[in-house]
Amino acid sequence: IIIMIKNRSIRFVNFELAKLPVVFLWSKKWVFLCEKAYQIIDTAIESSVMTKVKGFGVHNGQVMDVADYVTPTQGASVFCIITKTITTENQVQGLCPESEKRWICNNDSDCNPQRNKPGDYGILTGRCVSFNNTNNTCEIKGWCPAEIDTVKITPMMEVENFTIFIKNSIRFPKFNYTKGNFLPSINQTYIKKCNFDKVNNTYCPIFRVRDVVHYANQDFRKLGGVIGIKISWMCDLDKSDEHCKPSYSFNRLDTMSQKNEVSPGYNFRFAKYYKMENGTDYRTLIKAYAIRFDVIVNGNAGKFNMIPTLINMVAAFTSVGVGTVLCDIILLNFLKGAEQYKAKKFEEVKCQVSIKQEKNQQSQQLFLIHIQPSNPLKLCGFVSVITVFHLTNEMNQIHEE
Ligand SMILES: *[C@@H]1O[C@H](CO)[C@@H](O)[C@H](O)[C@H]1NC(C)=O
């Protein structure tokens, strides 16, 4: 049974207090289970990544090992596997013709306006010199001879069978919790022969390049770009330790250059330097086409804590309480059939109120108010007390007037 009190302010107080247990039960489930609002979350994951690539390939008739095709060599979280190189050997400092087509010239006056400006492979001298039997090009000062990078070279296809071994340790500083991607379930014999796949070997830390490229939805033969290997740690530390596991995902990071025809793929140049007997330097310039891998680690961990529990409980109380009050206001006042709803929800109880006026020892006015409902079972004590208090105030005002 619900008691309707005609005085609005009293009605409000009584109703909201009566609703609290219901609100509590409802919000408890939502807050605690679905939103994990009883936990504090640590998103500041600390991580270290070590990588190691294995495999042999053949390129330009030479067998390439890891020291030849992985750069930088430190085994960091970002590394490149070189799939193709164009080498220009025995470069020395000097003067020589440009190798790019756009520097073709007939005489010095074609090149002179560009004097001291950068060309493709050196600083232009302003002279037009013989490049080969048919063409002249502008002369440069720099490392000579200039690189010719239009030669066709087949990439090293064995790269697809190379493996990447990833060692990842993480720490959640708020809880001082550490873990690695070598789960306790992984033993020596398993790790010697396992390769990651998304069905049976979801925790094997050894990845075949072909699989990584495939999982990132890329075509290995066309590839030169940046592939992300993402390791996510979503840990509920209220559960046992074995539930905190990494999950791996793969995607292409340089989606810009994938769509862009102007600068497709990924390449860079580096050189190896030597000294001649007479002391002058010479070098081998290498233009490398590569697949770059970025190992990205993210994650968060949650653990039970009293403070968010309390804050979220209070928040739930408040929001739900306000919601029901609003619903009631609309239903009771503005909708069609509000009278019927009111009649269902509330039942009027008639009370007899008798007021006795007395004087106490300090000769102050005192009102004794007695409320007697026509059916006593229908009123709870709490309502009576508040009603009495309120009536007293009103009576005082009347008396003063
Ligand atoms: C990669 O390995 C498979 C067998 O494991 C082999 O059939 C394939 O030819 C290899 N790919 C290259 C490019 O060598």
From TrEMBL:
Sugar-bearing residue positions: 161
A UniProt-annotated Pfam family: P2X_receptor
Catalytic reaction list: Na(+)(in) = Na(+)(out); Ca(2+)(in) = Ca(2+)(out)
Keyword tags: ATP-binding, Cell membrane, Disulfide bond, Glycoprotein, Ion channel, Ion transport, Ligand-gated ion channel, Membrane, Nucleotide-binding, Receptor, Transmembrane, Transmembrane helix, Transport
Family: Belongs to the P2X receptor family.
NCBIfam families in the cross-refs: P2X (TIGR00863)
Binding residues for ATP: 52-54, 163, 267-269, 287
GO molecular function, one term: ATP binding
Transmembrane segments: 310-335
Cellular compartments annotated: Cell membrane; Membrane
Source species of the chain: Oryzias sinensis
Example GO biological process: calcium ion transmembrane transport
Assembly notes: Homotrimer. Forms heterotrimer with P2RX2. Heterotrimeric P2RX2/3 has a ligand dose-response profile that is distinct from either homotrimeric P2RX2 or P2RX3.
Biological role: Extracellular ATP-activated non-selective cation channel. Plays particularly important role in sensory neurons where its activation is critical for gustatory, nociceptive responses, visceral reflexes and sensory hypersensitization. Receptor for ATP that acts as a ligand-gated ion channel.
GO cellular component: plasma membrane; postsynapse
Membrane topology: Multi-pass membrane protein
Domain of life (superkingdom): Eukaryota
Name of the featured protein: P2X purinoceptor
Cystine bridges: 96-144, 105-128, 111-138, 194-204, 235-244
